[in-house]
Hints:
The chain is of the alpha/beta class. The protein has helices at residues 2-33, 63-74, 94-104, 123-133, 153-158, 180-201, 217-222, 238-244, 268-279, 287-313, 317-341, 351-371; strands at residues 53-59, 81-88, 108-113, 138-143, 146-148, 167-169, 172-174, 213-216, 250-252, 260-262. The chain has a domain at 43-267: Spore Coat Polysaccharide Biosynthesis Protein SpsA, Chain A (Alpha-Beta Complex), CATH 3.90.550.
Amino acid sequence: MNMFVLPHTIITTTLSALFCLVALIQLFYYLWFYRRTITQEVPRKGRKRSTPVSVIICARNEAENLEAFLPSVLEQEYKNFEVVVINDCSDDNSEEVLNSLSKKYSNLRVTTIHKDISLRHSKKMALFIGIKAARHELLLMTDADCQPVSPGWIESVTSGFSNKSDFVLGYGGYLRQPGLLNRYIRLDTMFIAMQYIGMARAGLPYMGVGRNLAYKKSLFFENRGFGPHLNLQSGDDDLFVNALAKGSNCNVITSRDSFTRSVPPGSWNMFIKQKTRHFSTSAYYRGATKFLLGLEPISRVLFYSLFIVLMINSPAWQLTLILFGIVFIVKSVITTLAQNSLQEKDLLLFSPLFDVVSPIINALFLLKARRNRYRDYEWK
């Protein structure tokens, strides 16, 4: 009988030790990285920046969004800025919308790219043309379907620039809409922000989002634009940051005036395409970044799986439950504070389910992206 008891004891002890390890890994990510998301900058009253800024927006067939959201960018309360819109091969009425807005706003400049079968029309090409056309050193990127939450958006984001900082990372969330899909998209976006904001503030910047990203024009051209990743359809934001951002030249701004909100994908199919496109660039991240981004979801899956196994089979299930409770409380508190900081308060009840299922769903997206690695993804 002892011959059968001994292996079972060894297996249980090994699984318990592994559970303790992955619990510590989860605590490390939340206490070292993700808690940094809850820090917000206090606006300096009475101090207004006057450094000229060029806002760059690429648009293809975005007439409806341009009409709805572009005025909120053009009417920013900032002393000296221009908005450069690159109308890239649109075949809707974008040109008419932009012409109408140009008559009303003197700070709007439009560059139109016409279809040419000899050219590969990508967002990177449109961005390159827009950056080249920009008159100012400080560049602030957003999308045509994005809306700043405040007229102080430009002021807030660009306050992150200094003589040392070449990048400023901001938060780009999605508009709140009814339905499960919208909640999942917003939670996914918020968790990604917890990752890239937390790691950047810990001195390990690895990505930004094109919906709310600023950098210097001189940096762009000194490093040959999008460099070795020019041939990739995606990566105009995350790969550019991943290649050039360091702890010493990158700043993060999360004051509430600095946020943007975008129109979310309207169907699961659109969301799957978007996520697959985003995951297609992760293979080009730095090795250390890939390790850190991979370790957390793996440890999370093991954490929940081992908890179930040990609760059923371990004689010391009370200790397992106590450790699980500690980790769950820490994660819940930090996630709640991050939701409050990023103005995503209505997602709290859905967060535990997302925490369990998202690593599995993201693994499927990653496999799909690897399988379609050389596919020519859509422009946006």
